[in-house]
Amino acid sequence: MHYHRKLDIILISFTLLFFSLFFSSCQSSVETNKIDRFALVNRHNIVVEEFDLMTPLSVGNGNFAFTADITGLQTFYQEYENGIPLGTMSNWGWHTIPNKKYAGTDFPHHIQSLPHFRSIANAPEYQRKETYSYHEVEGREVPYEDQIESSPRAMEAADYFRSNPHRLHLGIIRLKIFKSNGEEILIDDVKGPKQQLNLWRGGIRSEFEIEGQSVTVRLFVHQEKDLISAKIESPLIESQQLSVEWLFPYGAPVHTGPGYDLSKPDKHNSLLQANEDGHATIRRILDKDEYFADINWKGKALFEQTAAHRFLLTPKPGQSALEFSCLFSASEEDVDIPGFAETEKNNEKEWKKFWTSGGAVDFSECTDPRAEELERRTVLSQYLTKINGSGNLPPQETGLVFNSWFGKFHLEMIWWHSAHYYNWQRSDYVEGQLGFYSDIYRTAVDFTRLQGYKGVRWPKMTGPDGLNSPSSIGSYLIWQQPHLIYLAEQQYQAKSN
Question: Are residues 238 and 143 part of one domain?
């Protein structure tokens, strides 16, 4: 296929659920014709041959993903804001705007436009009890975290706790290419693009030309580390017209968007802690949150800070290729940073393991004209759920591509996202998500007791803290309660321990 659409992860998971439930009702005592899994997967590799803001491609490992434009990195991130944003997202990267400073220009625009804004801009920090709406249940007053309109102050408190914490875009990594006249390239300067996502190997290969000069970019995400690794080959490296640029943004507490804000350079810090031959470390500080970006490269190159939150890796003359790896981490640790060759081998091993284990469906001998498309959707759904929804947190609605619902996830949807794994014999991919329930158990129990209920009431829309997000609808829903029981039973059936 020469086109690709990013489908909502709910529909992707539904595809797998449909087949998993269908085939779980069938029994086979004898394996007659073994599926050629290599052929099955590779006939659905994605090929993109023109710019389309709705067709970026992603690579990832379930806890971390990187989404690239047709150049193989995030070169034209601004243009893709009008389509599907190019994310660098993780399950550990979150940002919280300080409660005490959630005033003035830190308020979302729709808050600043309200008539009462001036009276609340300097108010003390918000408290969750300000979001409570009380309802009589069996003779007692029960609090629910609501987006209530009882007062402007209550509305703003609900807005703050709903939008914080929000998932953080960890950093834009892009090609910076100059034409022979010294001007930086635009989208129209990219000629003859051809980009392929190799599903079997988990990598993206991008080829294009700038003023007749070829550029090839190969990209992988390590399957055990939150790391991207790329190899770039081009005559433009020798002429020093091609560099790699890092841009680090502030967090963006928006309901839907790329998860970054480049308009507030004074609100965060990007500190170049180390800059040696072949290695650099950048410490990121956003209010009370911090993380690190460790960058390794192969060959002689200059790494420098060019502006606030902007860094540039420029190869020195005498080279036609540039290899680099960038490891994102929540804490500063002495960790091994694999190079491109090692990351490529890691992907070849782990993706082969994924595709050769568990269930598979081959429709190649079906005569129905719809069979090919159905098989394509099944294969691509397995790839997308692996990179977006097999980590240690329940996936958000848009996976790790870009933010929806502030990057938070909905426990009402974990069944749809993850119940298929068991019937495809891949129940191991759910274990991390179920561990989240243990992590937030005490928090959930405490609020359950506050409401006067027995047992445990799981939150609906939440982040890694396990606190419910105020909502006039979500706070009252209970359909997320049985999901853990169902998923735990699946795990027991898979392992019986």
Answer: no
